[in-house]
Amino acid sequence: MYALIAMAMALVLLVVLLRLKVRLGRAMVVSAAALAILLGVSPGEFRRTVVEEWRDKPLSQTTGYLFVALTALVILVNVLGVAMKETGVSQRLAPALQGLFKSRRVALAAIPMMMGMLPTPVHLCMALSASYFETSLTKIVIRVIGPVLFIAGAGALMAAFFG
After folding, report:
1. Which of 21, 33, 105, 135 has the greatest number of CB atoms lying within 10 Å of its CB?
2. What value does the mean pLDDT take over residues 127-156?
3. pTM score > 0.85 for this model?
């Protein structure tokens, strides 16, 4: 329970620093250092843990590898966003969502929510959405198969180069 409270305190510190107009990178470093102090992690212990991780675990389970994989995933989502902009899909998205939702605020909030869902487009929500909008799940899958294959291909390339 103490670790959860320490993480909440570090998050509050991060928000306060950002409100005080401290640069994001510096605020994150200060918050991480505060979390390390609250949890009692010394620099020597941190170094020993990182060395043991790199020595004892396979590459695909190390923090550095997971960081690179998540960074690549975020970059690929941005690439998809640029592709949507270039093809004109993003320009049609806002008016379509405004027609779907009564509130303009909800429609504008739905756009980043949908972009956040891009890395994991196939899950239970698709089936629920198909049922709610009374459409065929097959039609939805046909529309999503392109981005899914793109992300799967990018994942395969990442595994080939880093795995």
Report:
1. 33
2. 72
3. no
